[in-house]
Structure formats: C-alpha cells, structure tokens
Amino acid sequence: MFCPLGDGYLVLEGASSFLAVGRALRRLPLCIETVESEVVQGLDSDDLVAASAPSGGPLAPALMLIELVRRYGMPLVVLPRDHPGSRRLGIVVSAGPVVRIACDIQRGTHPEQDVLCGADEFAGLVLRGIPGGVEVEGGPPGLAIRTVPPLSTGI
Amino acid sequence: MDVEYDERVKGKRFRCRDCGESFEGVGKHPVCPSCQSDAVDAT
C-alpha cells in the first residue's frame, strides 16, 4: 500500500504497539555507534527514519526521536548484545531505504538499519521509502494508518 | 529470543575530498560525517 507523505509522519497503530515513520527529507550522514566502531550510513531524502514502540506508550517521544535523527543528525547508539539497558528502551529507531520489522531481536542491539525491533503484531511488516511517500507491505489485519503533521521545532 | 544477525555492519572506507575525514560508510549515498559533503572517494 502506498501512503503519500511529506514532512510529517505516518503512524501505524496496532492493538498494543505502534510505529512512526518519517522521510529523511535531505541527504545526511547517519552515524551508527557501536562498542567497536563507527559506521556512517548515507541517507537520501526519500529514505525513512522509523521509530518503533513495541510496548506502546505516548507518540510524542517517537516523533521527537525521528526529528533528532533527521533534522539534528543525532547518532544512533547500538547496545552490545544482552546489555541490561535493552529492556529500558521503550522506543527504538532505524533509518534507511527499507526497514523491516522483526519481533525476535533484542531492542537496541542491532546495528543493521534495515531491521527494527517491533511487537509481534508488526512482525514481517516492511516499510520502503519511495519518492513522495512510503510503501507499507504486510501488517496486521485492520492496521490503522494515519498521517500526523510535523512537530514544531521553532523554539 | 534473539535471532542471530551479523553484528558487525560492514562498510567501505571513504575519504572526504573537502575536509579529509576518513570514515567507514554504508549505503548508496555516502556522506562525510564531519562536513556533510558527498564529495567522497572510496579508499
């Protein structure tokens, strides 16, 4: 399903979790920091920045995280496997041309940007950034998708 | 449960022609993390 998207966000709501996704909107370097190294992923304007809240919660922090990445170029920090902080992460972020939701990975411990931790109900869902919007493939029956205008960052 | 993925993202080394920064990049459009230039060369 093609979902047109400008500078706002697409919010995909399940029964107990949600995904929020925005377009990168510009070419930028996304720094991915692991214990061992730094890898820099080049994002294009049609690429996606996706935030997943596998246990649900408020939407605003997810949208803020998307802005921290795409507007302010904040790096993504990847925890080592089995790090105790993984369970504290209510929202996790991935960015790139394609983001696949997986429910069988530990939150915040995978540097690959084409995989994002999500709830069971979103397992297998694929988000693809294409000019002018997002292609959504898969997802639970009755998936609710809505568009949210961009956060005001004029502070 | 945690499915095994490759934990090391493998990129290519690049050097920025504008600022000289050297970095490991992935993706189709490498961009310098220091000066945001896309004038980079694989090394």
3D structure, described in words:
The complex is a heterodimer of chains A (155) and B (43). Chain A has one helix spanning 60-70; strands at 2-4, 9-13, 18-23, 28-33, 38-43, 48-53, 76-77, 92-96, 98-102, 115-117, 126-130, 133-137, 144-148. In chain A, the strands form three sheets. Chain A has a five-stranded mixed beta sheet with strand order 1-12-11-9-10, with no helix packed on it. Chain A has one domain (2-140). With 155 residues, chain A is mainly β. Chain B has 43 residues and is an all-beta fold. Chain B is built from no helices and three strands. A three-stranded antiparallel beta sheet of chain B has the order 2-1-3, with no helix packed on it. Chain B is globular. Strand 5 (38-43) of chain A pairs parallel with strand 2 (22-26) of chain B, so a sheet runs across the interface.
Descriptive keywords:
heterodimer, A: 155 residues, mainly beta, five-stranded mixed β-sheet, five-stranded antiparallel β-sheet, 1 helix, 7% helix, globular, B: 43 residues, three-stranded antiparallel β-sheet, 30% strand
